[in-house]
Amino acid sequence: MKPAGGAPVQRARAVLGRWWRRRTLHDRLSLLVTAAVAAAVLTVAGIAFAAVAQIQRQQLRSQLETDARSVVAQPELWRDGPPSQGPGGRRDPRFRRDIGPRWQVLGRDATVTAHSTNDLPVTDGARRVAAGEEQQVQERVLLDGHSYLMLTVAAGRGGGAVQVAADQTPANRTLTMFGLLMAAGCVLGIGGAAALGRTVARAGLVPVQQLTKAVEDVAVTMDLNRPVPIHGVDEIARLGQSVNTMLAAIDAARQSQRTLVEDASHELRTPLTSIRTNIELLLAVERQPELAHRLPPEERAKLLRDLDAQVGELAALTTELVELAREETTREPAEDVELTDVVAAAIDRVRIRVPAVTFTFDADAAPVHGRPNELERMVVNVLDNAAKWSPPGATVHTGLTAEQGWCVLRIADTGPGIDAEDLPHVFDRFYRSPAARGMPGSGLGLAIVAQTAAQHGGTVTAAPNDPRGTVVTIRLPRL
User: Among 369, 384, 378, which Cα is nearest to 326's?
Assistant: First the structure.
């Protein structure tokens, strides 16, 4: 069961939390600095006040004990009144000073045998000391509207007691004045801390304000090539460096997107133009039947077959563009994967599509951390490319080994190979060598392979196969 006051406390905390979140960073730092200095000042002031009060009490108690011992040492000299006056009214030379303003000597039965001009109360504690039940008692008593500290000590073997008292009002007045001075000092110190806190916060946030202005300028101008200025090696400098890294990544992504759109529009324009030309020709014949003799049936059938092939090419290009865009967003979660299983699944898929080519596979255990579907698509693209360039009855060999912290996948075909001048460009988007322009394809398959390998922290290369063909080598970090 919750306490009855729980709801108001929670509401107060919520209000305080909302108020705090609405403050600027400058205000928060100022308040934190002020609170820290205020806590330190108040702590020191409290300790100082308590120490002074304790010292005053100790001094007063020591004075009373000294006065009491003076009486106890020679009680016979105090029986007939204060010994401050000797014969003829002169001060007795054995007494160098008067004791406290009030003193009193008690007999064993607690009767007053000698006293100063003002009597002291005989309390129960004083009676116990006079009777020998206790050695001393310290009490606070109120006399004439003033607070006195009274000390009662045993008078010795004969019994009785000695009482001495001192007025605490002057000491309390001094302590009060000291407390007021301490309070004034605390107010001034906290006020100075508030002003200093604002100054410190303003000076400390100058780099943050500069960084904010630079980022806002980038947001307005959209100029991602202008880095944020960095000064020093502190946390603000690290933040600026992180912002520059982020801007560079955004600029690279924007450039990549722009390149993809430009290349895609260029590659899509060619099949779309051809399709449009052929469709316009067919529509012209349909609108003017008298011109049908100009398009014989065999030409019409050939035109329709071309249209079907162009639509298929356009569909394949669109699919690969979508896959490439998905690769850039990388939405599939990464996990620990056995690359052997991924490659085996990819080989099974390609083997069904290309039954005229034989696929072999030798593999060692190769655990990696990656995205299974993307890795399988990467291997399928390489196998499709190898099968496309392999003659019927040829063999595509796939080998997977573990080498010095890497999983190395090699896919070798026995096709015509790649010319030396084309090797540096085979993984570029939409690149097609002169020999490949008459073959089906979009020039995106190997670009997807390179991008997927890079996203998994790996590399991909292409090299001639001995004695003929091409070897594509993919290296991925091994678990």
Answer: 378
Predicted pLDDT at 374: 85
Measuring CA to CA, which residue among 181, 184, 180, 204 is closest to residue 192?
Answer: 184
d(CA 237, CA 240): 5
Write down the pLDDT at residue 96: 37
Residues in contact with 287: Cβ distance below 8 Å, sequence separation at least 6, in sequence order: none
Q: Which pLDDT belongs to residue 424?
A: 82
> What is the per-residue pLDDT for 93?
46
pLDDT digits (tens, 9 = 90+) for 86-132: 444 444 544 434 455 688 888 888 888 877 777 788 889 888 888 88
What are the CA-CA distances from residue 280 to residues 276, 277, 291, 307 (Å)? 6, 5, 14, 12
pLDDT at 196: 79
Q: 164 to each of 56, 68, 76, 430, how far by Cα in Å?
A: 17, 6, 17, 110
Instruction: Map tokens 């609108």 to a residue.
Output: 287
What's the pLDDT score for residue 95?
A: 44
Query: Residue 178: what residue type?
Result: F
Q: Which residues of 296-327 are buried (b: 16+ CB within 10 A; e: fewer)?
A: eeeeeeebeeeeeebeebbebbeebbebbeeb
Other beta carbons within 10 Å of 164: 27
**Per residue, what are the HEC states of the chain?**
CCCCCHHHHHHHHHHHHHHHHHCCHHHHHHHHHHHHHHHHHHHHHHHHHHHHHHHHHHHHHHHHHHHHHHHHHCHHHHCCCCCCCCHHHCCCCCCCCCCCCEEEEECCCCCEEEECCCCCCCCHHHHHHHCCCCCEEEEEEEECCEEEEEEEEECCCCCCEEEEEEECHHHHHHHHHHHHHHHHHHHHHHHHHHHHHHHHHHHHCHHHHHHHHHHHHHHHHCCCCCCCCCCCCCHHHHHHHHHHHHHHHHHHHHHHHHHHHHHHHHHHHHHHHHHHHHHHHHHHHHHCHHHHHHCCHHHHHHHHHHHHHHHHHHHHHHHHHHHHHHHHHCCCCCEEEEHHHHHHHHHHHHHHHCCCCEEEEEECCCEEEECHHHHHHHHHHHHHHHHHHCCCCCEEEEEEEEECCEEEEEEECCCCCCCCCCHHHCCCCCCCCHHHCCCCCCCCHHHHHHHHHHHCCCEEEEEECCCCCEEEEEEEECC
What is the pLDDT at residue 98? 46
Query: Which residue stretches of the chain have pLDDT < 70?
Result: 1-6, 75-101, 260, 262-264, 266-267, 270, 291-293, 313, 316-317, 320-321, 323-331, 430-443
